[in-house]
Amino acid sequence: KAGVTQTPRYLIKTRGQQVTLSCSPISGHRSVSWYQQTPGQGLQFLFEYFSETQRNKGNFPGRFSGRQFSNSRSEMNVSTLELGDSALYLCASSLAGPMGRSSYEQYFGPGTRLTVT
Amino acid sequence: GDSVTQMEGPVTLSEEAFLTINCTYTATGYPSLFWYVQYPGEGLQLLLKATKADDKGSNKGFEATYRKETTSFHLEKGSVQVSDSAVYFCALSLNDYKLSFGAGTTVTVRA
Fold this sequence. Notes:
The complex is a heterodimer.
Chain A: E1 5-7, E2 10-13, E3 19-24, E4 31-38, E5 42-50, E6 53-57, E7 64-68, E8 74-78, E9 87-94, E10 107-108, E11 112-116
Parallel strand pairs in A: 2-11
Antiparallel strand pairs in A: 1-3, 3-8, 4-5, 4-9, 5-6, 7-8, 9-10, 9-11
Chain B: E1 3-6, E2 11-14, E3 19-21, E4 23-26, E5 32-38, E6 44-50, E7 56-59, E8 62-65, E9 75-77, E10 86-93, E11 99-101, E12 105-110
Parallel strand pairs in B: 2-12
Antiparallel strand pairs in B: 1-4, 3-9, 5-6, 5-10, 7-8, 8-9, 10-11, 10-12
């Protein structure tokens, strides 16, 4: 079974621009989560989607948004980029269903390395 | 809020040494607990998990036991190899679809 794939793997953008990152989950996984990883803040939860609906959101400004398509693929968008948005953005998918269950592990993609200059 | 505290790194060991990484948590409910590992330039891989008190997760020689009384989930391996060099993250999940991670512990194993 193919793992979680993320595109692109690397991006360089300028302050003020916007960026869209893409994530394809493992086949059969309907839950997709996004995380930001930085040396200073570590791994922080951005949001989670299930059946095209955002179910949970972390403490990030509105410049960070996402969506999920009917095939479970997900995109996240960051508008008006700031230098502090430079990070590794990780996508994860799981078998989590419509009811809250904490036991499903999340499978992570390799990440997209975003550099803002 | 819910949080995970890991022992500070970095940790440097010789091959075949014993490894332990301490992890404690604070949670409002009964979380599932996980250890993830990140190799250089890669995403996170699940190492092991435990979903209820007294469960022991194990994989690739690593073990961790869910201790509700001490709110801990310490990672151990009896004999490390150079290939175990990586960053290790302890994490918890409640019924809210997100993982809360510790800060990570960098482990370097020398031949």
